[in-house]
Amino acid sequence: MNNNLRKRAALPQSTGKRPPRRSRGGRPTAKRRSRSPSRKTTPPTLGRVPQWKGILGAIAALSSSATVLFGGAWLSFELLTDPQSVTWLQSWFPAWSQVPIANKETPKTLAEIQAQIRAGGVLPSPPLSLDSSSADKTETSARQDPQLLLPVLEEVRCQGKSGESAEGKTCQQLAQLRVYQPVFNPDNPRDREPYYQLINQLAIVGPERSFVISPLSNVEEFGFGLNGPQPLTQIARFDNAPDKGIWFNLSGKRKVGEVHLTYGQVLHYNPETAHISVMAEWSSPGGHSPRWEEVTGEGDPELVIDQTVGLEPQVKIFSLTQQQFFLNPYALEEISLLTPALSSRAYKDALLLAKSGLWSAAWELMASVKQDNADENWPQMAQRQLDLMRFHAQMAQKQAKGQWENPAQQVRTALIDGNWKQGLEVFEAQLSQGEDMREALKEEKPDLWNRVETAVLVNPSLAEAKLWGVLLLAARYDDAEAIAWFEEQGQNTPELTERMYDLLDKQASAIARENLKQHQSQIVGTAWNLTKVKPQDWRLPRSGESLKLSPGQVWYQLRVSRFHDSRRWRQKPFNEIQFSSNTRVSQFWKELGLHNDPQVQILSGLPNGATRTVLATVKAVQLQQGDLLLLASGEGIPALVAGEGTKALALTDSALKWRSPDTMTLAQLKRQDPDWIGKMLPALWQELQAGGQLPPAEVPSPDQMLKQLGGWLVQSLDLTGNGLSEAVLTLRSDALVRSRLPQTNNGTPYRTRTLIFNDQGALIYSELTTAAAQSVTGIADLPDAELPVLVVEGTSGYSLQQWSGDRNRFEF
What we know:
The protein is α+β, with helices and mostly antiparallel strands.
């Protein structure tokens, strides 16, 4: 019987052979090998895994089983000993499958938890909800109530400005944050009152004091004091924060100097693992709290910390990044300018400009670098640095465009932004009005000089930046220093050099006019009584005024020996002064400082050695063959009114400051410095002989001289500027031979004689011989003078004498 189903398949015509036999299980057929009669062969390993792979597989299987076994054992052990440590596993299961887990502490109501906290000696704060409030939120708790964050406060002693504890005062600070999860009432699961169980907690330790004050420009001024954690007192939930968890701001405040600082920490709560962690610390001298703001355009907002001090924009920006940490997969990374993302010179120059505070110039340069690079060659770090520059630049530009009532602030804001041309226009406008703008350039913060130097280094052709370098150096040092720096720079055109000198001249004129506005009179001279006054001989500062004498007052004429014109001291003869017009008289009145302080002191010596002082008001001025005369009215001094030609010392209050060095006897000085006295006594004895106070004879021994002269008074102070003291010896009238003293015009002998010896014991001034026609009234300091002066009364009046190193003597 023919059965087609039982027929074999026809052989292929091309080969005439049977098709290859398929191995079982779909394995490929092993290649047939010829056997060698002299060797035994092992059974073929058709389709089998190599033996070593099988061993590894077995080990892996055993390891996995062991891991599961031990993991289960660990979980069982934790559930029995510390259930709280594994409560985070609840978040991995849906709400309907969760069951209350027995804890070391039984679940409690919120009121019971707060009472328990108070019993522990600390204070609970109002709880904060840990509800994410997002549309895609999934339930992770055993009921509808949200998890709670409960801040715990502790009472501590309040801290003072330097960080030390203030006695008698207590303050509250955050000590702990506790996370509670709602659970069923273990005794009555149907109870509708919420019960809570502690699932996590975090001890709060504030930032160190050194970190808190670090943004201050003068941090070295506050660097002393107790370092340590600063208290955190407030907690608030962030607005506009990323939707990756829940973000909180912990903050505190303290006053450092005159600055009210705000500082704190940024906290993150991960609902999936119930983990709470500190993400960043912050400090703001301006009292600004951190905020979340879209800066880089990467999707999530960035954390912005404003550390601006005064007019200097300073912001820290943190980006949200990923990290390999199960409990909290997020981190905050500060956008930094320290590491260049590209190696090009222009890119590094942009970073240099930004570090010096020239944000607008840095942003512009960095943007041009980005245009020169394809998108695929522009790193993410470079984009973030560009965004940081843009953020600061926009702050600086907004500030520079603001309305400033003070031109100095307008100039400074322009320079902070590197707007050299705009700042120079405002500066020159103020100079033309006679306003001195140096004070706007003398302050070290913000660092304007660093900005100028960096700008010129990056671009030597910036003409206005170079001019600002000249003005800054002239204001802080002098014109010579400024000109020297300017000449060291390259690419200086003749036009730029001429403009530089013109600016310095305008600044000098403005300084002179400004100084005159504040100038106080500094005048020294001689006064005597004047019985008759001819008004036509005197020039008044304002036209239309007249010379009138009030009842009980007298006229004084003052011959000026020296005065300060707001720039330098000038002394007679005053031949260069000319009164060509009333305007010149009014200007000269200001140079004398009489527009601010027209009063002058008149000091007259009395017979008993005391001094009588009266105040007089200067009314007019007169020039007379090189003499500068002032007319003043005031209370009369009988000795001056009665005595014909009697003179008095006249000076204004700001003219000089009297010196009062310590006084001792020669015997006391001998005990302090015997070598000095040993050299001085022979020179003193010989000068007394030369002045006729001692008979000519052999100079006795120092001990014999000291027995006779040891009670004489001496003062020591540096009069020559070599850093060593001179000895000023004042000879009393009862120790002198009165008949041999020079006489004054009215027959009254001088009361004292002054001798001065240098640090080597040599005589450098003597009123017994070389200076016999004058008498030292006192020793004083002059403003802007390096050396003290002798206030000397001579035959023609009072004058000031100062040591001359070139001439080796005291002179006018």
